[in-house]
């Protein structure tokens, strides 16, 4: 019961096939760690994400958290494309600066119709906290 | 006292000069309405923002809200580049689908050190609510 | 279709009968305005809610918003006691001080399984904004 | 530098003297663990906090998180009564039911003007997660 609902190779295949634009095909994102209800996704520094400061932009950080938390959710409920973000709250803790970022996610609660996920973004090399996100997903009927 | 801290032409000039990547230079974003503490920003449909669904992506919607609310803030406090997002909460109400989006913002409270802004994203043509966002900005010392 | 799912007298009876501790029986709360998807609830100043400052306490303000938004939700979906709060975000805008408070609520989105409600708390006499709340409710299966 | 800004006895004295209504005088709340940037506060089951379900009420849970996170903040910045809640987000994970609750808090970021605290509420006996809260405090000028 602690195995993920789809294994790592199946998850990576699902992401590349169904979400070709997400960035897992071309190195913009990478799945580092992966287990049931948990994952770590990397966002290498990319000039398209840089804003004055200079720093990785807020939307890039929010997008990282959203995709990572969604992968951690699918590791529990399986490949349900229609699990949609209902609510997202982010607190920005420190400027990201110009750094590769990592997002560590875990499930706080996966219910039948709602899931609440935690996503913590940090600078990958130092572990310095950049953002704390709580994301609620609505799960379609019959998915569980 | 109801005049914006910088007028519309000055704001557009500031955005283009200081934030060339934000999208106001090349039509990815457009400032539709603008007054002290309020604005409306348009996000025309752009295939780079589309995700499976298909729909304009969540990060594109959050990015729209963040930049629009920041413009509404600057209309009160003036061109303070270092006003940074401390906290952002978004509730997604309906899928954006494939549509031009509009974001209407207003200041809920602009204090000396913190500002709370409201950003409501809708489909521009129909006015259908897509997302409701509340964003808190930290204002640097001496800016006010 | 713009009639509330239960009329005002039925709502007040439901609150008093099923939620005797909520405060509608003994004047701690009062339903001022009421329509489908909207309501205004009053919280008269009560020394039990005062904290150093002095001011009406944060938990009293959050409790007011939660009950008022829940009433506005029930005005759409009917008396479903098991609609539960999934997520609540509050931004405190100004100190409440020592004042009667009012909470104006409206539905942002009432779906089949989730509802998102807006609750705005102000000083009743002046209309000064005290808090802005966004509340997500999970609606039990079969309720709609 | 890992000592709290005021030691445990001083914190308990401060709470009882300055916040007599908070509940630390009469057993409604108890400070269980306490260190710099961290604490655990207990909320024993009290019939005044029960709502239909039956369960400890949402406002009681939010109030617990707010006071506990504020204590964890003061353990870093010292007894600054005017540190005020700017923003609070709570996700309710499971019904509290009829149980003693515990709230574990830690600082995510304590800056000069803003602090972001994490508060996790659980059933004290089982450790079952009840609520996840992120709270932003505004710190008055000169306090740090």
The strand order across the widest sheet of chain A is 1-2-6-7-8-5
Supply the helix-strand structural class of chain A. Answer: alpha+beta
| Chains forming the largest contact | A-B, 24 and 24 residues
- Classify the fold: give the CATH topology of chain A: Thiol Ester Dehydrase, Chain A
State the shape of chain A: globular
Major β-sheet profile of chain A: 6 strands, antiparallel
- Summed up, the domain count of chain A is 1
Number of helices in the DSSP assignment of chain A: 2
What's the number of extended β-strand segments of chain A?
8
Q: Which percent range describes the beta-strand content of chain A?
A: 35-45%
Low-confidence stretches of chain A: none
